[in-house]
Amino acid sequence: GLRCTRAIELHKVHRLDFGDGYLVASAERSGIGLIASFDRWIDRVTTVRRDERARAQRQGYDPREFRRCRS
Questions:
Q1: Termini Cα distance of the chain
Q2: Which of 7, 9, 64, 69 could disulfide-link 22, Cβ–Cβ 3.0 to 4.6 Å?
Q3: Are the CB atoms for 47 and 39 separated by under 8 Å?
Q4: Rounded to an integer, what distance in angstroms lies between the CA atom of residue 35 and that of residue 51?
């Protein structure tokens, strides 16, 4: 689908591997725009933000909790 197509595009443009490209495409499509990852290659993509310290939340995303993690 669209995520696979976007992942291939990210590979061509930013040299991301397919897995990272798919992760970026999923974050873009879902509207979250934040990826918890140690892979600095993701920083090449300007449509998402990467955070090494972001915590995984169960169901919902709580911005207040994210701010606490960043400080």
A1: 38
A2: 7
A3: no
A4: 6
pLDDT at residue number 37: 82
Residue with tokens 């291939």: 8
The tens digit of pLDDT for each residue in 23-39 reads 999 999 998 888 888 78
DSSP, residue by residue, 2-71: HHHHHHHHHHHHH---HHHHHHHHHHHHHT--EEE-S-GGGGG-TTSEEESSPPPPSSS--HHHHHHHH-
How far is residue 30 from each of residues 17, 27, 63, measured CA to CA in Å?
A: 20, 5, 16
CA 48 from chain centre, in angstroms, equals 6
Q: Are the C-beta atoms of residues 57 and 29 closer than 8 Å to each other?
A: no
How many other C-beta atoms are found inside a 10 Å radius of the C-beta of residue 10?
A: 25
